[in-house]
Design a protein that fits this description.
The complex is a heterodimer of chains A (113) and B (161). Chain A has 113 residues and is α/β, with parallel strands linked by helices. Chain A is 43% helix and 31% strand. Chain A has one domain: STAS domain (Transcription Regulator spoIIAA, 2-Layer Sandwich), CATH 3.30.750. Chain B has a single domain, classed as Histidine kinase-like ATPase, C-terminal domain (Heat Shock Protein 90, 2-Layer Sandwich), CATH 3.30.565. The termini of chain B are far apart. Classes of the chains: A alpha/beta (113), B alpha+beta (161).
């Protein structure tokens, strides 16, 4: 699982993920991702276009991070999921609690709103 | 039967320790086996999702304290479906008795976990459970190979659950 964290304009943090958000994948990134965005309550957008698979542990990770960010006036926005990942997010009704945008532009706009 | 691949070409058998390390190694073996079977697309991802959720659940919640719990998977590629039979000697667990988490009204009240079984149900068309006389959990899951069948995961079959 590869992860790249970059600072965008207006304090938005962009996270690019490539690989699989299965158990080993979540184990590989969760601590670093949480540490990078949660302490400062960052407005965070996560590019899922390079993620082909997500399981319940990946959903759990996003919910936990999103909740922490929300409590610290930040936010988490996911965008550009591949078809299977989008179906998993839909099945779990994740979009009801974490915004899922179709592309980077709309995700960044939502993060800055 | 003429035109039918040999049984060995349509089957994957795995046995693993119910530990994180065992899980990671077996997942690699499963994916290599699925490559060999040329199972691709949504059916393959569905199989991987079921393996992930079933095995992770045993590792996290079903393994006995002595650390000797084992899990086996027998995967058979059928013409229209993939049948996965899991056996584990962990604590008894009937997934049919576990309800899906309640819909979250907001992030603050959302349950963080409990979605694994929901995901399994959404991609399979049958799910059977039994506690065997030998004291094992036996879970049989049938995944459709027709991509259209699983197109709407939220319509996943519950009749067999």
């Amino acid at each position: 699982m590869k992860m790249e964290i970059t600072e965008e304009e207006e304090g938005v943090v962009k996270v690019g993920l490539v690989g699989r958000l299965d158990s080993p994948g979540v184990d590989a990134i969760e601590t670093r991702l949480t540490g990078a965005v949660c302490p400062r309550g960052a407005r965070t957008v996560v590019d899922l276009s390079g993620v082909e698979f997500i399981g319940s542990l990946g959903l759990r990770m996003f919910i936990t991070i999103a909740r922490t960010l929300s409590r610290r006036k930040g936010k988490l926005i996911l965008y550009a999921p591949q078809a299977f990942v989008a179906q998993v997010l839909e099945t779990a009704s994740l979009g009801d609690i974490i915004p899922v945008q179709p592309d980077a532009a709309s995700a960044l706009a939502a993060a800055r709103a | 039967m003429a035109g039918t691949a040999p049984e060995s070409c349509r089957r994957i058998e795995l046995r693993l320790a119910a530990t994180r390390e065992g899980f990671a190694a077996a997942f690699d073996q499963l994916r290599s086996g699925l490559d060999t079977l040329s199972l691709i697309g949504r059916p393959r991802l569905s199989v991987e999702l079921i393996f992930e959720e079933v095995v992770a659940n045993v590792v996290r919640h079903g393994a006995r304290p002595d650390g000797r719990t084992t899990i086996s998977l027998d995967l058979v590629l059928q013409d229209n479906a993939v049948q996965l039979t899991f056996l584990d000697d962990g604590v008894p667990f009937d997934p049919r008795e576990r309800p899906d988490p309640a819909p979250a009204r907001d992030l603050e009240h959302a349950e963080t976990g409990g979605r694994g079984l929901m995901l399994i149900r959404s991609v399979c068309k049958e799910l059977e459970y039994a506690r065997t006389p030998e004291g094992q959990n036996r879970l049989i899951v049938l995944v459709p190979r027709d991509a259209a069948t699983g197109a709407r995961m939220s319509d996943g079959a519950r009749s067999g659950v």
